[in-house]
Write a structure and sequence with these properties.
alpha+beta, OB fold (Dihydrolipoamide Acetyltransferase, E2P), five-stranded mixed beta barrel, 10 helices
Length: 297
């Protein structure tokens, strides 16, 4: 592992500027402009995908900024800065899977983007084929295979690439190209857009929480409660003792009181939908004494 010593002990920063170019016959593109909604979704998706690669594969943060724009059909100049990838030896197998040698570490992000996009194209967007290829690789150990599979199937990465290529759904967009100087990193055509589409799976997660909260709103019927603690949220109260204690109270008697609550945050999403629905349920409530308010009686 001595060959990786430099990268393990010294902290360097690698900065590069890439151009994201949108080509096509869209009326905006023909006048060197781009639709603001298309652009914000797309460039935000690119940033999300890059950030996921750096976090999952390289274990390092990335700073992404828009530097300027230039004429093309529409070109956007994006600057990326990453900290020297720590513990290179621990991800050497993954880098080699993408054809990256240790001495090429400063180009790791560029080459990884090229390789991942090409892998998706070769597999025609079939994530199962990609997983099979990774599992067949004899140079990757089990941990490296697990990291790589989780990374390419990471929801943030998949959603990022889906958003990045979304303008290609419009017939007026023909291709999106990312280049570094004269070097093309990758290009995705509208005929390849479906390889990067992502359908989020159904989701149903329950997280248990406890918090010290204050009541900030009650409906006149006292059946809708809004609390403020670490978060502001509307909640369903399942503590019947608390409900019985407060059912005859006026809202101004309850506002400003503080409570210790225990409950559940339930996040659901239907398959194919990106929007999540969050429900807060409070199971138990106990009053926190306050020198400024009389306790409940």
């Amino acid at each position: 592992m001595d060959q990786f010593k430099l990268y393990e002990e010294e902290i360097n920063y690698f900065s590069e500027t890439v151009i994201v170019k949108y080509d096509g016959t869209n009326p905006f593109l023909l006048t060197h402009q781009i639709d603001a909604t298309d652009y914000s979704i797309s460039i935000g998706g690119y940033a999300k995908a890059l950030s996921t690669i750096c976090t999952d594969l390289f274990n390092t943060p990335i700073q992404i900024s828009i530097v300027a724009n230039d004429e093309g059909s529409f070109k956007s100049v994006v600057n990326t800065t990453i900290k020297s990838i720590g513990l290179i030896g621990s991800i050497c197998g993954i880098l080699n899977f993408f054809g990256i040698e240790a001495q090429d570490i400063s180009d790791a992000l560029t080459k990884t983007q090229t390789a991942i996009v090409q892998e998706f194209k070769d597999a025609k967007g079939d994530i199962n084929k990609l997983v099979e290829k990774i599992n067949r690789d004899k140079n990757l150990n089990d941990d490296e295979k697990s990291i790589l599979i989780e990374s390419i199937n990471n929801q943030n990465f998949r959603e990022g690439m889906d958003n990045f290529t979304r303008p290609l759904d419009d017939n007026g967009y023909h291709a999106i190209t990312v280049a570094k100087g004269e070097q093309k990193i990758f290009s995705i055509k509208n005929t390849e857009r479906h390889y990067f589409k992502y359908t989020p799976p159904a989701e149903n997660e329950t997280d248990f929480f406890d918090d010290n909260v204050e009541i900030i709103y009650l409906s006149p019927e006292l059946n809708r409660w809004q609390f403020k603690g670490k978060n502001e949220f509307w909640a369903d109260i399942q503590d019947h003792t608390f409900i019985n204690r407060t059912k005859n109270k006026k809202s101004n008697e309850l506002k400003g009181l503080h409570f210790k609550v225990y409950g559940r945050k339930i996040t659901t999403r239907k398959a194919g939908q990106k929007k999540r629905h969050i429900t807060w349920i409070i199971d138990t409530v106990s009053e926190v004494p306050s020198p400024f308010k009389l306790p409940l009686t």
